[in-house]
């Protein structure tokens, strides 16, 4: 199937989101659709997926004009949209999720579970997927949940699949698994539209690219003819820094020290310290235990043994509330699941941690609450319309800044940032880097957890590399490089120099 979208316009009130956009997607290719948050990517794909109508313009399938009144019509035409928030039910087995909304029933009206299980097994065999159809979705890792969604699209005879940020919450091995699935689909003639902020993945898996900026198609072509720097420049309209970020480092006294910290299963023998003004990185591969380590330090999990010092005083942290009282802030790994509350507005999300500070006899002082957040808006460069708007109206980068504002309002001594640029575009990533550097220069002790070696290298003064639950080694300063980090992350050691 060849999909063409020609001269597409779309506005929301006075805000013109798409301006004369024309793109083509061919069967048997993986084509990247990239751009900053707010560039119009989701709106364009929602029009193709039947979620939104275009104000003007035409969609063609194999040269024939079509119009989709709803997502079901788009799907019947062979276009499947796999959204970033997967539409799976954890408490059902895989095969029942595969047939949600289109269940097979016997002639007596009962669910034909046996047939649904058999058809699910057939599609898994066809796609070379080793997965038990009877497995509960809640027991699957993120990559297999993504694969279930993809297989469901194939079962519906999709000829074109839109994949919106499919690797945002995946580890490197999980990403490889999804990429193998995508390559299998491409080889079978399926066209894939790959929406991602991870430009290295675009270079790795895509044949073509299309770039939207401010609602216009500003660049397109073959991936083989460009670099990640080129793509970043197309997205933001200017060169993006790629060198190691520099600052005047003023390391102060020790803030947090951990000695011989042990967990039941996730980590063991952990020793490290971080000082005021220092940015300390933690990195590694799947199952390295770094997120579990800092969840335990923050009081969200128990440790078997070990000691923790804060400002020279030994502490025993027994809850997240206690950690916050002691001056520890924690920005969690998954923003959508653990950091924002979708039913609350921007101000409520930005101040929920510090509500006790604004409360008197159980009543929140709204003026103080708004005053502090207004300071954070200026300090962090948060772009919004009204503080009472839903948090869902903000781009991923601005949502991340709101989460950061929430923790900064608590005035922590040490701030733990787990995957701080998850799901944000290259422009917002640079802004968040600048904020982190500025906070360190103001004397805050910062710990950055990231699987991206380049992020660690660019941002951190030094980094500890974990492997299978323990610290395998340390890299630091201008000598940090991806080769050494990967060597340690896979269990190797660095030669003495």
Oligomer: single chain
Give the tally of structural domains: 2
Given as residue ranges, the uncertain stretches (5+ residues, pLDDT < 50) are none
CATH superfamily assignment of the largest domain?
P-loop containing nucleotide triphosphate hydrolases
Tell me about the biggest sheet? 6 strands, mixed
Number of helical regions: 18
Radius of gyration: 24 Å
Percent helix range: 25-40%
Number of strands: 22
Q: Look at the structure and give the CATH class of the largest domain.
A: Alpha Beta
Distance between the termini: 57 Å
Q: Which class of secondary structure composition applies to the elements?
A: alpha/beta
Lateral arrangement of strands in the main beta sheet: 6-7-8-3-9-10
What name does CATH use for the topology of the largest domain?
Answer: Rossmann fold
Mean model confidence by pLDDT: 86
Question: Could you please describe the fold and organization of this structure?
Answer:
With 497 residues, the protein is an alpha/beta fold. It has two domains: 2-236, Rossmann fold, CATH 3.40.50; 254-489, P-loop containing nucleotide triphosphate hydrolases (Rossmann fold, 3-Layer(aba) Sandwich). 34% of the residues lie in helices and 25% in strands. Strands 6-7-8-3-9-10 form a six-stranded mixed sheet, with helices on both faces. A six-stranded mixed sheet has the order 16-19-20-13-21-22, sandwiched between helices. Helix 5 (142-155) packs parallel to helix 6 and helix 14 crosses helix 15. The longest helix is centred in the middle third of the chain and has 16 residues, at 172-187.
